[in-house]
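2024-03-11 09:14:02 DEBUG pipeline.ingest accepted 1 chain
2024-03-11 09:14:02 DEBUG pipeline.ingest length=314
2024-03-11 09:14:03 DEBUG pipeline.predict start
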Amino acid sequence: MKVLVIQQRYGIGDMLIFLPYLKALAEKNNVKISLLAKKTSRSSELFKAENFLDEIIDLDSTNDGIRGFFKLSKEIKRRKFDKIYIFNGSLRYKILAIFAGIKSIYQYPLFTSKDIIFQTAKVFTEPLVGKILSTEPNLLLKEEDVNDAKNTYRINEKTKNIVLGVSASGPTKRWDIEHYIKLAAQLSHYKECKFFIAVGKDDLEIIDKIKNSNINSICMTMEKLQISNILNIIKNCNLYIGNDTGFMHMSAALGIKSIGIFTDSPAYSYSAYSKNIIPIVPRGETVESTTHDTLGKDRISLEEVLDAAKKVLN
């Protein structure tokens, strides 16, 4: 039995939200599954310690267009899959499965769009596996790798170790860096803290502001680390505070309480799936109403985030 699953969404967070359903399908079929996914989802790094995967097939720009379609269908066909599960309503992937000669095809209703990501996946998967599924992802790491990170990065259990997710995919999704600096300074007066700054290589301006601030001595920026290193650091931490990014979803999937600051993204879709995510939304909004184009970065107060952090740390 060979099983292929297609999950074509771009983000790390998206992929982690699908983790319970990928595992459930592997368990139901009693096989390791193949996963067709975009490189931007970082699946190979996220699932390095998991055992439900056989392989990851990259979905990239070479698979676009008519020529790309036939290239991909040829690649899928030669693997001789028996079943395919398609976590989207695209007609393209339905036709791909037919061209690849896969007999058993399971897919979202065609043209499904603007869905609540975790709810649609749950409703789709549960009848296929014959049981109720938790929406909570549980990402596995190797214990020795977590311990190595603790030693390498001098993570002390007497200190409150906090991930600050100051990066984001766009400026409207990013709470101001000056707020994070003030937040860290106030938390460090409240408890002895060390902050691990979750940023990307392109966040040079943010990194410079932190390194030139009064919290620099208690911070470590992680822009040069691989996802696998960052995961092991996060697992050693007490709390995540930050924007709606892949780092937040990684923290939640590792069982870390995560204060998610939702300024301009669908707060319900990207927080309600996990009990570990504590959403904070702009003044005048609700978790259900905060979405794209909310533009609420100036309507979330430092005091509100600080109070939420203190509650977790206590």
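2024-03-11 09:14:41 DEBUG pipeline.report The mean pLDDT is 96.
2024-03-11 09:14:41 DEBUG pipeline.predict end
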